[in-house]
Amino acid sequence: MCAVAVTGMGIVSSLGKNLFENYQSLNTGKTGISTPEILQTNYKDLPVGEIKINNTRLSNDLGLNPGHSYTRAALLGCMAVRELLHNSGLSEFDPGTGFISGTTVGGMDMTESFFDQFSENSENLRYIQAQHPGFTTEKIAAYFGLNAMVTTISTACSSSANAIMLGARLIESGRLKRVIVGGTDCLTRFTLNGFNSLKILSGETCKPFDENRNGLNLGEAAAYLLLEADEMKGNRPAIARISGYGNANDAFHQTASSQNGEGAYLAMKKAIEKAGVDPVNINYINAHGTGTGNNDLSESVAIKRVFGDHIPEFSSTKALTGHTLGAAGAVEAVISIMAIQNQEVFPNLNFSQPIRDTGLMPETKLHSKQLNYVLSNSFGFGGNCTSLIFRNE
Amino acid sequence: MNDLHTELKKSIIDQLNLEDMDVSDIENDEPLFGDGLGLDSIDALELIVLLEKDYGIKLEDPNQGKEIFNSINSMVDFIEKNRTK
Amino acid sequence: MNKKYYIKDYVILRQGRLIRNGEVLLEAGNPELKDFLRKIYKSFGMRYPKFFKMDDLSRLGFLAAEILFDQEKPEADTALIFANSSSCLETDKAYSKTMSGFPSPSLFVYTLPNIVLGEISIRHGLRSENLFLVQDRFEPTTMIDYSHSLLNKAKASNVLCGWVDLHNTDYDVFLWQIAASGRLEHNEEELNKIYLPE
């Protein structure tokens, strides 16, 4: 079965600034959820998955000159892509390398801070274009001199999962030989206030799949994978392969998921079909599991519909990372691949009581397990549902 | 019908973009959600904002809304008991 | 593998004009966007109260899709591949104005460009693949490649492509459907000709 090779990856999240730190946190079940210190907000007590490195330190680390116009999402994106380059076995990206980045917040951290000053303060005018989600993608591409196909996907919380899917397709169809796929999003007042107005933020660390779950925690992160056609890979190892993907719309509500989880059900089903396996071959699901009443119930119903009596082990890692919106699909792709590399299932924190209507029990302890196929779910506002399947090389 | 009923209907029509609808189209005891006016969950959140903005009532638990937003009558009842402005 | 596809039909909304397959169906002078949208809604006798709850970007895409699907309802596996350059900037601005007082949930839910795809999907029960790309300018290559790949691999039986842009008061909408046969070949040249005549 032909499947697209993943030959490198990189991540920065509230769990750590590289793969090693993220793995350590996943392994010890140490949450990245805290209260905002870098994000300037009145909601001082709302838990968030914040990366405790400010923009100045990120800029210095990346060797950027003062006066640059990198948004926080671009800075985080550069960190993750730099790590990807280091562990890909390449010395640099060749000119044909594509770049597909998912984001929903883009550079709104800058525009929300400077919007009122644009007319008076010419110094900040360099950020006036930052509202455009493509601005952040272009900044990351410029940092690495990527100028083949560069594109942004914005489909809310499934953005980077769709970026991964698009990249896999471009490799399969032969249009690209090598492509960096993933996504980046940072915390902003815009999203914190917005999710708060929807009454879906929890005042404590989220409790995915628990009967008493009461909302999600926003987070920030950047994560990317390098996908390659086998002829480019040469003798370099593939760390995993993308063997299936599926996207479907829930066609139910702007932000809420349907009671029967139709979109999620279709996305998982399509991904499994594409992978050419039976549902029983899926060894672990990294669930979307945001910790809201609506998502976790709908996703549970969908999982039961797809897998029937043979529910694979599953967990949501969002109580560790927070919900990183457009970056979530890529963050959880990296986590899924780490699970395969280490043959380990990472825990779903804060679970004590199953949801009454569905009774599903997520995995709450780190443990070893033979993992050949891992399915990862990402569902976004607008009904956009995506499932990806990663296979052990 | 007292003034609060009418005032509330006006602001609901305005706030929830109920185009083509008039104060006289909304009955005091008609269900606002489901088969009645057909409002949805986002409308419910917008009504929570309306309570806070116009009447100084903060609703922390959105589940409370289910009873309060049953009809115009139930909303008026709740507002009269709890308004701070 | 390079199977040919064709442009089945298209709709343009621009400068107070509604054009379907080259024919001007409605000419409204140069009204405010809201009035233009309402006029289209009324003149086609639409009845869909949710329309008035949508933000302007969704209303634009929704109306254009309604007009395309006026005579023939879309098949259930019609994929939606859309793009624009201004994302949902207008709604972002409107929502951020409310942030200093009472952040508006009904505005916040539209601060994502792909919500327009969700609205079209809800209206027609489409649970098909959908994607929203943000580009500098109208540049159909990606949409062509993506939609042909979907059709070639039988992942969709039909694709609705669209450019739905709204910036300040400027709106620019071009939606088209792809078919297996037809007059105009589905390629960059023909699309550019329709999008930018002369």
UniProtKB/TrEMBL annotation, chain A:
The keyword Amino-acid biosynthesis is assigned to this record: no
Any one biological process term the GO annotation gives: fatty acid biosynthetic process
Stretches assigned to the Ketosynthase family 3 (KS3) domain: 1-392
Keyword RNA-binding tagged: no
Family annotation (Pfam families): ketoacyl-synt, Ketoacyl-synt_C
Keywords: Transferase
GO MF assignments: 3-oxoacyl-[acyl-carrier-protein] synthase activity
InterPro entries: Beta-ketoacyl_synthase, Ketoacyl_synth_C, Ketoacyl_synth_N, PKS_Beta-ketoAc_synthase_dom, Thiolase-like
A GO cellular component annotation in the UniProt record: cytosol
Family: Belongs to the thiolase-like superfamily. Beta-ketoacyl-ACP synthases family.
Protein name: Beta-ketoacyl-[acyl-carrier-protein] synthase family protein
TrEMBL record, chain B:
Protein keywords: Phosphopantetheine, Phosphoprotein
PROSITE patterns documented for this protein: CARRIER, PHOSPHOPANTETHEINE
InterPro entries per the UniProt record, alphabetical: ACP-like_sf, PP-bd_ACP, Ppantetheine_attach_site
Record keyword Iron present: no
Superkingdom in the source lineage: Bacteria
One Pfam family recorded for the sequence: PP-binding
Domain Carrier: 2-83
NCBIfam families, per database record: PRK09184.1 (NF006617)
Protein's UniProt name: Phosphopantetheine-binding protein
TrEMBL record, chain C:
Record-given protein name: 3-oxoacyl-ACP synthase
Native species: Christiangramia oceanisediminis
